[in-house]
């Protein structure tokens, strides 16, 4: 579904992404791990159209989407969430969800004046969709709560819910588990698995919680210094000497033996 070819993203002398190549298969939940500064979020930002790469290309279903702006990619079904949730804090959870679909007739002043029936009908359709998402995520108890009053984990669920308000093909999740308690993290994980298995969503997720990654992701890709270091199952990647060295500074084979006691 997504193919990244020899991607480079430089900021002056900083090579944030430095020749990364990878593929994300349709229907997969792909994990992206790596130490801080490995280039993971920058890679997401390039794929999602927030940056135009220095060189290289990104393809979606064989079409070159390199450098297309986020709103165009949104229309193609490519969405991303952020490590820090971006909710409309003064709107309710339901209203936040209803804001997502584009080209709603009520957005145009002329339609609001002269096509009130169409505006009302579309609003009912969107509200029904929002309630379906709320039920799917099991957050009915906060449906009418202001989004700004939600916990960090509930805000992450809301971000996931916003991707369900449109026909998403692939969703990039940036540290969806950051700052989330274990109970809500399990709820988020269950929702991701259900969206993948029941609705065919493809996911790629940056995450540092290896238990969470191991539960959800296959394959797992490890980045270091702006490029792809290793790829495989979670277990294979966790036991890869190069990955151990990237995270811990030295591989197990290179560690000195303990002195006899």
UniProtKB/TrEMBL annotation:
Domain of life: Bacteria
Swiss-Prot/TrEMBL keywords: ATP-binding, Nucleotide-binding, Transport
Molecular function terms, GO-annotated: ATP binding; ATP hydrolysis activity
Pfam families reported in the protein's UniProt record: ABC_tran (PF00005), BCA_ABC_TP_C (PF12399)
Entry's Gene Ontology cellular component terms: plasma membrane
InterPro entries to which the protein is assigned, alphabetical: AAA+_ATPase (IPR003593), ABC_AA/LPS_Transport (IPR051120), ABC_transporter-like_ATP-bd (IPR003439), ABC_transporter-like_CS (IPR017871), BCA_ABC_TP_C (IPR032823), P-loop_NTPase (IPR027417)
PROSITE patterns registered for this protein in UniProt: ABC_TRANSPORTER_1, ABC_TRANSPORTER_2
Domain ABC transporter: 2-250
Protein name: ATP-binding cassette domain-containing protein
Source organism per UniProt: Algicella marina
Lineage of source species: Bacteria, Pseudomonadati, Pseudomonadota, Alphaproteobacteria, Rhodobacterales
């Amino acid at each position: 579904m997504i193919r990244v070819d020899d991607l480079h993203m430089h900021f002056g002398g900083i090579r944030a992404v430095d020749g990364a190549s990878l593929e994300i298969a349709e229907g997969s939940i792909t994990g992206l791990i790596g130490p801080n500064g490995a280039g993971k979020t920058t890679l997401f930002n390039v794929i999602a159209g927030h940056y135009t790469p220095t060189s290289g290309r990104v393809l979606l279903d064989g079409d070159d989407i390199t450098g297309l702006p986020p709103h165009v990619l949104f229309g193609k079904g490519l969405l991303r969430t952020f490590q820090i949730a971006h909710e409309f804090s003064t709107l309710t959870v339901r209203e936040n969800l209803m804001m997502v679909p584009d080209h709603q007739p009520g957005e145009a002043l002329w339609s609001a004046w002269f096509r009130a029936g169409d505006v009302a009908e579309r609003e009912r359709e969107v509200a029904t969709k929002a309630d379906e998402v709320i039920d799917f995520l099991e957050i009915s108890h906060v449906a009418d709560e202001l989004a700004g009053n939600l916990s960090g984990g509930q805000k992450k669920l809301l971000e996931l819910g916003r991707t369900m308000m449109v026909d998403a093909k692939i969703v990039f999740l940036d540290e969806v588990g950051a700052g989330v308690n274990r109970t809500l993290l399990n709820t988020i994980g269950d929702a991701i698995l259900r969206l993948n298995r029941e609705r065919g969503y493809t996911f790629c997720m940056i995450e540092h919680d290896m238990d969470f990654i191991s539960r959800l992701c296959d394959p797992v890709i490890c980045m270091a210094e702006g490029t792809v270091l290793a790829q495989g199952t979670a277990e294979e990647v966790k036991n890869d000497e190069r990955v151990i060295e990237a995270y811990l500074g030295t591989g197990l084979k290179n560690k000195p033996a303990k002195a006899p006691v």
